[in-house]
Amino acid sequence: MGVLRHVVCAMSGGVDSSVSALLLKRMGYHVTGVFMKNWDSQDERGVCSSERDCEDAYKVCKMLDMPFHQVTYVKEYWHEVFSNLLREYEQGRTPNPDIMCNKHIKFKHFYHYALNTLGADAMATGHYARTSQEDEEVFQQKHVPPPRTLFRDRFEIRKPVRLYQGADRFKDQTFFLSQISQDALRHTIFPLAGLTKDFVKKIAAEAGFQHVLKKKESMGICFIGERDFEHFILEYIEPKPGNLVSIEDGKIMGQHQGWFTLTLGQRARIGGQVDPWFVVDKDITTGDVFVHLSQGPTTNHPALFRDTLQTDRFHWIAEDPPVELVRTQMMECHFCFNNRMPLTPCTVTLNLDGSVWVMLKEPIRALTPGQFAVLYKGDECLGSGKIVHLGPTIFTLQKGQNCMSRPPKDTDQQHPEPVS
After folding, report:
1. Which of 156, 343, 372, 391 meets the CB 3.0–4.6 Å disulfide criterion with 334?
2. Which helix or strand (DSSP H or E) is residue 292 part of?
3. What is the pLDDT of residue 1?
4. Residue 364: which of 305, 309, 303 has the closest Cα?
5. Backbone angles phi, psi at 35, to 5 degrees
6. What CA–CA distance (Å, rounded) separates 200 from 417?
7. What is the DSSP string of 47-69?
8. Residue 222: what pLDDT?
9. Cα separation, 381 vs 129, whole angstroms
């Protein structure tokens, strides 16, 4: 390598980013580690977890003889991620802050800080994901502003960088990267692209990163930690009490503190009820949350299952929709709205406003407005759009079919002639 390339690696204090920094050093790059602080909080023991993570990241950089920086995005996170999250909950939706954090913080503010402030040639993260370009191609990219129109100028010739699932499909994190910009993707290296989590842990152990290997993997919403979600969200949103209503007979089973404290498919805590009740639907106009009594630890009530949804304007990672979709207005691909769910075959229809309709091959449980519909073609992540409308539930369709199958009442009764 003729020129020593400068790469800024996002350091979280975890094993994945630590090994990413190590691999970048082994590749011969000049690597700078940067820790991002996005939230001011303390855990249940009064310890600020971000300070502990920052110390762990610093230890790794010291072991690798790397420069270390800390940058704070608490204000940006509040305005661009958390405030949006509160608005979504108040509108009866269930947002995904991890996707929005990557879009607005890590792959926008941090990306610009790495390239513009620190003068890096590229940035790197510990995500399990791949792109269509080799590492050396990353350093040949130039900044290109995003299109100002709905779609890019069709006469502009530019080969987009594609986002692909990582080698470890169980740990694949392209779901969380489905809203990032093409420009940021062009300047990003994923050192763990071809590795499994087990192999990453082995590298960390051999490197002596014992302090990060011992840590529990972060799960759930980062700023909530192990706290009860309902107690947390009610610190920021005024309670809006309403009824928990049995979807079977309309009987009021109990009360809730706000529809935003409950999400579809979760167990509802109803005082005096021993048997498990689960949330199957919500009506934010009345404040009613509909519940179903289950005989087991979960429920598959037909009111939870739908096979149609619409997104807002879809974010295509390549900036333009696939040629097949533009040409025929329809495309077969795969869908998910939760990173832990298997991909589901679907048919996508492109609308004139840039939104898409998604028709699933099989109904899916607990499709939720506010979550992101992420589309895949083979192992390529095409992008995502926020779910804004849902089709009817299987329960609603069954009720409609039952009504249609009933014989009309009073078929033999003579009706008087209408008065003219």
Report:
1. 343
2. strand 288-293
3. 42
4. 305
5. -100, 130
6. 82
7. --HHHHHHHHHHHHHHHTT--EE
8. 61
9. 10
| Per-residue confidence band for 269, with pLDDT thresholds at 50, 70 and 90 | confident
Q: What is the mean pLDDT of residues 178-183?
A: 97
Whether residue 54 lies in the annotated active site? no
At residue 406, does pLDDT exceed 80?
no
Which of these is catalytic: 9, 101, 333, 346?
101
CA pair distance 103, 81, nearest whole angstrom: 9
pTM confidence score: 0.88
Q: How far is CA 41 from CA 38, 222, 224, in A?
A: 10, 10, 9
For residue 349, the one-letter residue type is T
- Taking the C-alpha atoms of residue 169 and residue 193, their distance in angstroms, rounded to an integer, is 11
Which pair of tokens denotes residue 173? 């994190």
- What are the beta bridge partners of residue 35? 11, 70
Q: Which of 367, 98, 83 is nearest to 222 (CA)?
A: 98
- Secondary structure of 182-215 in HEC code, one letter for each residue: HHHHHCEECCCCCCCHHHHHHHHHHHCCHHHHCC
Place of tokens 């940006």: 76
SS3 108: helix
**Which residue's structure tokens are 């958390």?**
82
222 carries an active-site annotation? yes
Q: Strands across the sheet with 252-256, in order?
A: 252-256, 242-246, 288-293, 277-283, 267-268
In three-state secondary structure terms, 285 is coil
Is residue 416 predicted with pLDDT exceeding 50?
Answer: no
Q: Predicted confidence band at 321 (pLDDT cuts at 50, 70, 90)?
A: very high
